[in-house]
Structure formats: structure tokens, C-alpha cells
## 1
Amino acid sequence: MLVGMTYDLQQDYLAAGYDRDEVAELDSPVTVEAVKAALLSQGHDVELIGGAGPLVRALADGRRWDLVFNFAEGMLGLAREAQVPALLDAWDIPYTFSGPEVLALSLHKGWTNAVLRAHDVPTADFRIVNSMDEVEKIDLPFPLFVKPVAEGSSKGVSDKSLVRDRQALRGICEHVLRTYRQPALVETFLPGREFTVGILGSGRECRVLGVMEVLATARGDACAYTYANKQEWRERALYELATDGPAEQAAEVARAAWQALGCLDAGRVDVRLDERGEARFIEVNPLAGLNPESSDLPILCGKIGLEYAELIRGIMDSAMRRAENRAPRTRT
Ligand SMILES: Nc1ncnc2c1ncn2[C@@H]1O[C@H](COP(=O)(O)OP(=O)(O)OP(=O)(O)O)[C@@H](O)[C@H]1O
Ligand SMILES: [Mg+2]
């Protein structure tokens, strides 16, 4: 099978003038090579495509693939992760991971919370702040946690995200609105243990691979899995498989969120315990990082003994099943 690969490389955007923080969510050649090697080892032919721009050019040139392994994060706009799958849908080319509607929704953590609450999946109480005058109207009790509404890789999350009074709330909201040019998400601070839940499979057919507790070392920020903890994870973060009662509760919340949103193939759901010890959804990653060394999902797979190539095979199997079951198209 000819498998195309769509992705966005940090180095391409650095060369185009973006700064380190702006490209934090994008991929390195190590990840592209690792996915490619896994696909080749499974007997596929592989063609590297790149992001939305090169994909548009390739489609216009008449290039086609049996399936595209898509993990392009995109760069511009709040629907940036949806752009490549939307193009592939328009050309009727099957691909891995969720469709544009799920990727556009899930990148916006406020809207995702609202949809999940409608499905009775527990989240933190939250407000979306679009401008500074809205900060004064926030009626949630402190402490609160503030982050950009649509970023990943812990961008915009630091020890300043945890705020205990209105003055600090104003400061961090102003910082988020100005720096990230998008709304700030203000949530009730969840003070308990943090888990990231690895999931394989689509919607109702998904299965939880494992639950990994995320902890900080003495050198890391204790309040949250901050940008600094994530970037310097070897010194600042600790990851441990968890199987106790709260971990099982986290797995249930993650599974319910994955199914309610209709996420496809594989990903991660982040969960934290509230002040009463109840698990609450934080966010879903339907395009989870695939760096074999440093991304949370491959780290979790390593801990449960699932080799990287087997993770990629599981993702491909799930996507190929969907491709086979597609409605036949009438072509003129
Ligand atoms: N309401 C909250 N209460 C306490 N901590 C929170 C809350 N929301 C987020 N955090 C902390 O901030 C971290 C980053 O938040 P979140 O997972 O939403 O960001 P992200 O950048 O999308 O993460 P990822 O790197 O997994 O894509 C979480 O892992 C958690 O430690
Ligand atoms: Mg997260």
C-alpha cells in the first residue's frame, strides 16, 4: 500500500521566521523518520509529503495515496489541525486519526469542555475570557488555573497559571490574550494527581492502553505539568504507570470523553483529580505527539511493553478498517 505522510516540521517554520515558542507543537525529523521506518517495516511504500502547503501542491499535481498517515499540527488559525484532514476528505483519500470536525473542536478546550459536559463527562468549572473586561465578571472561586484556549505542548502553562486572587488573574489573562492572541480559558484549579491515558482505537471500539501518572521531580514545577517540565522532562518530570482506583476512574473519564467526541485511531486524554479526589477531564489529544523518545504516548507504550512499531501498526489497522468500510463513491 502507498502511504503518504503529512506532518509539520519545526525546522521549516523556524527557517520561515517563526520563533521557538511558536513551533513548540510541531515535529522533528526524528519523529517523521520513526513513523516512516515503522511503516516500511510493515511492508508499505512511503512517500513524505509535509504540511498543508505541500499537500495542496501534490494534490494539484495529481499525486494520490492509498492512505495518508496524518499528524500535521498546522500553524495558522484555531482550525489548524483540521486543515489537512479537510483537504484529504475533499479528495476522498483515507487518513489516520480524527476528522477535521473533531480536530477543530478539540483544539478549543473551552468548547470541548462544553460538549463533554453535555455528555455528562466531568470537567473543571470554566469560563472563556475573550477580552479584559470579562475578567471582572468571573464568578468562580479561587484558586483558578489559566491557559490559552487552543494550544498544546503546555504552551502558555507555567507556575503563573495557578492564580489565587483577582489581581493575579488579571495579569495572567492579559498575558495570554496578548501573547497568544486568542481567548484565555479560566478553570477551577484541580489540585490532585494527574494522569495521561493512552487510547487505541476509534469511538466505541477504543481500548485504554494504560494510565500514566505525571509527577514533578524536586526541580520541576509542582503545581502542574508546565511548559518547562515538558521541555526538560528528563530533569523535571516523572512518569509512572498507575493501576489503582483513581487511575481506573481516570481511565473511565478518558474513555467516556474519547467516545463522546468520536475520536479515531489513537491518542491521549489528560485527567486530574479535583479537591474531592474525583477524576475530571482536562483535555484530549487526538493528534498525540509521536516522538519515540520524548512524547507521552510512546513513553506510556514503552512502559506497558508495546513497541513503537506496534503502536504505529495499531493506528494503521484502525485507519485501514475505516477506509475499507467507507461508503462506495459514485464517480463520473
Ligand atoms: N484546571 C486545571 N487544574 C490544574 N491543572 C491544570 C488544569 N488545566 C491544565 N492543568 C495543568 O496544565 C497542564 C497543561 O494543560 P493542558 O493539558 O490543557 O495543555 P496542553 O498544552 O494541551 O497539553 P499537551 O502537552 O498534553 O498537549 C496539564 O497537564 C496540567 O498539569
Ligand atoms: Mg495536556
## 2
Amino acid sequence: MTKTRKIFHLLLFISLFWLLLPGWAIASGTATVTGTKLNIRQFPSTTAKILGQVKKGDKLPVFSQKGDWLQVKFGKQTGWVFKSLVSYQAANSQTTAVRPVQQQTTTSGTGSNYATVTGTKLNIRQFPSTTAKILGQVKKGDKLPVLSQKGDWLQVKFGKQTGWVFKSLVSYKLAQPEAKPVNQAPAAVQKTVYVIATTVNLRTGPGTNYAKVGVARQGQELKVVAQQKASDGKIWYKLANNAWVAGWLVQEKPQVTPVSSQPQDKPEPEPVPNLPPAEQGLYIDIRAIKEGDGTRIKVYANSSVTDQVVLEKQDRQWKVILPGAKLLNPFDGAGQSWPGLELLQVQQLEDDAAGVVLTAVYSSVYAPVLIPGQDGRSLEILVGLGRLQGRTIVIDPGHGGTDPGAIGGVLKVKEKDVNLAIAQRVRRYLAEEGAQIIMTREGDTYPTLAERYTLANDQQAQLFVSIHANSNTSSSVYGSATYYNNENRTSEEIAARLKLAQLIQEEILKIPERKAFGANNGVWLDSRGLAVLRGTRMPSVLVETAFLSNPTEEQLLNDPGFQDQIARAIAQGIIRYFTE
Ligand SMILES: [Zn+2]
């Protein structure tokens, strides 16, 4: 039990401070201290307790790695050291463990690829976001030409327009890109690019070793007549005036798409900055956008960055530290006023712990909401944005670890896995609305029921939502249900719980062909004495998404598309609870 408790507290620590998926990696080898002194900390964070100190030349056995931190043994204890202050010799190689290969953010389609709609209905949206305007709808079996791909979204052509569809609701196979021979001679191209860096040098040839002949500024358009790969593999563009410009400091102008007949209700999204290749080290670019009463800060990186973020808090001041990162362009918004913030500053550090630090001083007590991008290469920090800002919600994926929960009769799908998959999606959709989300578990672990509701009570969460899948001795029983509790509650407290259960069920039943389990739209007063519903002081419900004992529903629960539909419905019910 104490072991479970320790793991639970560690997970709790991670979910509270990072709100991100932990990115652990197994490592083994020896770290030799290169800094004069080196702190050994209890957790991989610069704010964690210092357990001890070692000096230059000391050697420490390494047994795991997380982001920029190494877990080491010293004496009889274990602790964490900052990787850039040691030289790390992995047991089986000359260098530190290689990062897993990252998927490209955007992949161009060849136009010969088709997505076939697998869901009953599918919305086509203006941007790759579930909140973007719906441009149209297609039905099961429809085929759409795929133009490009971004995270979980595909850009498709329909009629004369282009739009975005959610990847898990279509069947789609990306054709393997053809291997192109390396071309060392300039290849003729005709395109217009614009400068994304603050300034770029124009040179007499394709490389930084060529003489500088001029400068172009951010936003300036340049006509490209040829391109060439330099000896280091990087692309350079030859301009109409015969000067050369570095390909990674400019971006191609997007093609003009046909004007939609409907009025535009959202500005075009900002283009993703063009960053140097990952082999050149971690580069980031930071943009801030004013949105009504709030500010959206976007961090773009050229390799996985979300598992390396370190957060430091002091009163209303938050520091978001990206160890080892280099800033591509200086942040030029320091002198501006940003809604929701008294100060926004981005600095490049130059000492041992080199990296970038973003300092934000909040006007209110709200914590920043961090939303990691799907591929780990981007991070959004929301200030005063979203319908759920200032709300703290506990999401409880039922079961876990040694307790698998119900097990499907045909595919042997485990309830604990389905619950977690749905809960992680619920977390994302609520975080996008500015809510602070606390997960009772992030992985395959088993916090006790008391630990789950105590966490919610201690954190003074405003809502607790437990996610489960149902089971019955009869395989023909099916449907969705949500439970609430009325023991020792005032009439107001009961009304709040009932409202939450009703709204979640209402949203779930909007999913095509979804049926309620039982009367009252599947809203049940708990008669089983469910511990998490009894123990939570705030409004709480337990959602039984579908029956794993029913073969059709087991298949649905195993489908990421259905998991996403259920997650959206639960999130939408919660949003309505707070806003209606
Ligand atoms: Zn369960």
C-alpha cells in the first residue's frame, strides 16, 4: 500500500505541475559531474527538494532519464540531476539515448490519397480544431481527397473548397513519400516566400560562408527562382535578384483558397514557424496573440519539448523554463500590454542551465493552463481564455494497475485501458477551455478509492467526474448511464449533481445510435454506495460509458473514434454545467 501511495503522490505531483503526459525513458550508464557543484533533487524539477550535493569529477550511476534530467544513485538514495551539468556516458553507446523519431507535423499529400468516412456522419471544419466553423458534412462511405495532415487532422478537398476532418473518423493510408536523390545543383522553382525571422541576411551564395549582400525584414516577400541543398543538407533559396536566403528563416506564402460563400468568423491561423532541423539542437519560437480579455502564448519547437518543461511559481509570477532551448527570434512583445498579464517576458539564459525562460506575471490568481500539442513539438499557454478558466476539475479514470475492471467478452478489452483513453481526451477538451485538470491517475496504476476522492477534496476541485465502462451477466444489455449520489446532501447539492448527470447524458445521447441504459435518459441515483460519489464534497458523477459485456459496445469502446465522441460529450456536458 505504501508503494502505491508513493507512486500515486509522484503522479499527482506530475499532473499538478506539468499537466502533461510524463515522458520517461529508461537509461543506464554513468554521469560524470562537469559543473563545480551539482544539486541532487528529489524530483526532476529545479523547484524540488535538494537531497544532496556532489562536486566536479564525481561519478554517479544513472538508471533513468526524463527530459533534461537523469535519475542517479548516490549512497543508498536516488535523486535527479540536470543533464547539462554532467557528461553522460550511456552503457551501450557513446552518446546519450537517442530520442524516438518524431512524426512530422505536417505531411504533404500527393493528391492520390483518399480518406474514406467510417463514422455515420462527419463534419468538415475550417481549421484543424473541434471548435472551428463547420463548413459541411459528409456521410459514411464518402471518399475525400487528402491534401495534407496535421496532428489528428487531415486537410481534405470537398467540392471546390478545402477543410479539415478528424482522422480517427476516416480510414486513410498515407502513401510513402518517394525518396528523392540529393540534388546539389540549383533546381528551378517559382514561388513567393516571406521572412519569418526578425531579419535575415541575403548572401552571394547558398551558405552562411558566402558574403552578405543585404538584409530582409520580417514579413517581407521574396520571389524565389531556384533552390539548392547546401553541403549540410539545409535548403537555400535563390531570389529573382540573384541573392540567396536561408530556407529555414522564410516560409512559403500559402496558396489562395477559393473564398467560401459563408462569412469568415475566425481569422486565418498563424503559420507555424519554420525552425532549423532537430539535429542542430532544440530551437523554439514564441508568439503571443491577444484574444479578447485573454492572451494565447504559443511555443513552437523543432523537437519534442512538452516533456521537458519546468514550471516555477511564486505568488502571481510563473516561470516556464525550457532547459537547453535556443530562441530563434527575440520576443518583441515585452513592451506591449497583454490581457490578463501584468508582464510577459521571454529571455535566453546563458549560464550552465542554458535555456529559455518565459516569465508571466498574472493580473489574477489563476494558474496558467498549458496545453501540449499532439506531437509534443508545440505548447500553448492560455491566460484568461476559455469558458472554464479558473475551474479545477478532477477526472478519475476508473480502476487501473492490478485492477483491470470489467473485461470484454470477445476482444478481451480491459475497462481500465478504455477509461484512461477516454479520460485523457476529456482532459484535453476541458484544458482547451482553460480549466485546470487534475487526473487521479495518468497511467496504469491503482490509486485507492479513498485516495481518489481525498485528492479532489484536498485540491478543492469544483467537480469530480469518474469514468467507467459497464458490465452485465447478460451480453444483450447495452447503453450509457450516469450515476449521482444524494446521501447526506442538501437539496441544492443534490440538484447540482443531478444537473451534471443530466447534461452529460444529454450530450452522450446526441452521439448517433447511442442509447440510454435505463429510464430517465440513463440518469441513475446511485444505490450501490459508490465510494467516490459518497466521499467527494464537490458535485460528482460516475459515467458508465457503455457495456463491455455487450459485443457491439465492446467493439465501440475499443474504437478511438468512439472514445473521442464519448469524451467530447462528457466535456460538453461539463462545459454546459458551468455555463448554463
Ligand atoms: Zn468500473
## 3
Amino acid sequence: MAYILEDEFGDIIQKARSGRGLSVAQVARETQIPRGQLSKMENYTLKPTAERVEKIAAALGLSTPKLLDIAMERWAPTKWDVNFDSAITVIPLSMTLRSGYSVYCYLLTCKRTKASVIVDTGGNPDKVIEAVNEHNLKPSLILITHEHSDHAGGLRKLQVVTQAQVIASAAVALPSEVKECTKLEDSAEIELGDLSIKILHTPGHTRGSCCYYVSKAVFVGDTIFAGSVGRGGFSYQSLLQSVRDKIFTLDDDVHLFPGHGPITTVGQEKAHNPFF
Ligand SMILES: [Fe+2]
């Protein structure tokens, strides 16, 4: 299988190690794996053996069987069905960043009323506007998961052109050029046609990171990826707790739409994400 996950084994162990405040030398001592070889594994230039995966998982508080499946490239989420939800339509927009990495933002529509919103900017307002026009949508809101430039870059332009109201979490730190942002408390609800979208505060990747939950979908930004999590830039432990409290308490068939990598579900992440 072509391996499609956003994060490889090397990314996962690097995120877990730095999240726990450990140096490569400390993990090397703990696992009895030479420091240089650990660095090579983090940089994808050395494949780990199953025995080493076990030792590293134990040292970093990761799940051994789940990490082993990813290290051996044996797991990826099943491809999502675009008709997964009878109430909403989700259109993923893939943007390529200058760095060569890609990011997803989304157009979300209430099927019955055609009310629509934009989730994140993908750092490329022109491409979002193009897609909005192509699908003949009139988005009333722009929901921002967090302030990083690949998610909120170009927000002012998108706001001016679409005249949509910007929504973010109460703790978000958006650029000052973004005027009139509505900052919501945890669990606040906003209208999307017949439906309501609930904001879930999920601090961890950034202090003001949040997710948006509607019908059978959650837009998770960089809080959780298929088989991984975002970098715990604000707090690694808060990030893991946010996922446990706000995402893993939802039904297994709820779909997760991340900022990077493939779409997944709550059930698949509970079963396969090595951070849990
Ligand atoms: Fe981010």
C-alpha cells in the first residue's frame, strides 16, 4: 500500500520525545539504542526493528502494537465515503504550501438549506474563493481552528471578499489585521442552516486551538491526525487530554477532518493512534 499517513514513525517518536521533554540522549540511555541511530530513525533514514519499536514505545509512553503497525506500514484509515452523512456535505480543499507540504481546509454545507461555511483558509484565500464560486456557495462563516499561517493565512482577504463572519476560540491569537472576529467559549453553538455547530476547545497544539463538531463530523485542525497528533507547541499533555476528553468521547463513526493527512474516524483513531 502506498503509505498515506501525514506522520511517519520518525515524526511520531520525535513528537512524543519532545512532548515529554526528553533529549535523544535520554531516550538512548533508556532504550539502549545508540543516539545516532535514534536520530536516524527520527529523520526517516533508518527503519526500526520490531524489538526497537517496542523499546521506544515503552520509553515514550506510546502504544506498542499501534506504533508497530505504523512503523511496519500496516495501517491506514479506510477511505472515507463522501456520502457518510445525510445532513452535511464536506468538500476538502488541498493546498500545497511553499515548503512543499500540503494542508487541508474545508467547505461545509447543510444539505437541506444549502447554508455553508469555510473551515480554515489553507493559507490560500484565492483558491478558497475560487472553490466557493465553483460550487456556487455563499458562506456565512469562516471557522478558524488555530492561528498558524497554513490555517489562518490570508484570512483578512477571505473575510473581505466573502463578507463572512470569522469565528475562533476565545483563546486564539489571530493577526491584528483580522477585524471583527467572534471568539467563542467552549461548547458554544453556532447555526448552520438546520444544524448547529459546536465549538470544542482543544488546547495543546496552540493555546487557542479548537475543533468544530457538527452532525457526524469534527474539523480538528492540527489537534489529531490519522495515526498521530499535531505538535504539542502549547502543551503536549494538554493536547493528549483534549483528544481524550473532547474527541474520543464522541461516537466511533464520527468522521475527523484534519488539517493534514487523510480523513479518519473516532473509532479508527481509538483503535490505531499510538498516542492513546
Ligand atoms: Fe498548526
## 4
Amino acid sequence: MDPAQLHNLISAAFKARDNAHAPYSKFRVGAALLSASGAHIAGCNVENASYGAGICAERTAIVKGVSEGERAYTAVVVVSDVPTPTISPCGICRQSLREFCPLDTPVYMVSATYPALAPADGPPPAFLVPDADGGRWPRATDASVIAVLTLEQLLPMSFGPDNLT
Ligand SMILES: [Zn+2]
């Protein structure tokens, strides 16, 4: 994935956030997954008057993708309205991601300031750069906008599909 592709994935997450149904928490979240086939699958949180029936953005994206036949994901973006890159997937979403993502999957947590810095229809921002070590994933040079951790860092010593084979 190059910086332009990551920019598009981040922009897809913000577009989904804008569709969030969050009348109770007022906490809008968007997520976007890069599938192994190259598709971008986005989701938002969808709350319900029966609170327990709500679903997070990350799991919305997962169930959308899986139901369309996308069963493997290689990058994750999470966005919200919080102007710092500090909103990470909740515990149950980390476990759901574990089912369909390798442990080295990067999870990009992006500040709500991003769209103003890098509009969706514009080029990728200068602070997204290719991995200097030749890795597969771009990194962000501005830590006030993007934080990235791997799924394994977010969910250490996890239980996953390989534990049942
Ligand atoms: Zn969640």
C-alpha cells in the first residue's frame, strides 16, 4: 500500500463516519478495511434504541465485507470526531478483527483533523510516507494526526482461529 492508497482508505473511513447512526452516544466512528483483494470496505457505528443491539464501525465493516465474500483484511483505519489519534478499536472489535486479519495488520488511528489537512479529493498529505525500511505499510511522520499499532500490539496473547486447528 502506498501513501495515496492509505489516503483513500482513510478518506473512506471518514465518509462512513459521516453516515454514523449515533443519536444516543453522539460518538460517531468510521472504519475502513483494506481487503486482501484490494477492496475498501467501510463501516460506521449503528446504534439502536435497544442499546445492546448497536454495533461498532469496525464490526459493521467486517460483516459487510464478509457477507460480500471478503474474508481477509490487511490494513485497518479507525476515525471519529476526536481531534487526536487516540481512538482505538474496543475490545470486542479487536477480537473480531483477529478472526480475519493477520497479527501484523496495521491499525491506523486517525485524528478528526485529517480531512481538513488532506481533503478526500486531493493528494495524500506530505506526512504520509512510504515505510523507510521497505515495509509494506506507509507510516505517518506527524504523530499528532495518525497513530499506528499492529493488531498484535492491540491484542497481545490473543485467541484466534489457529488455536482451534
Ligand atoms: Zn468496537
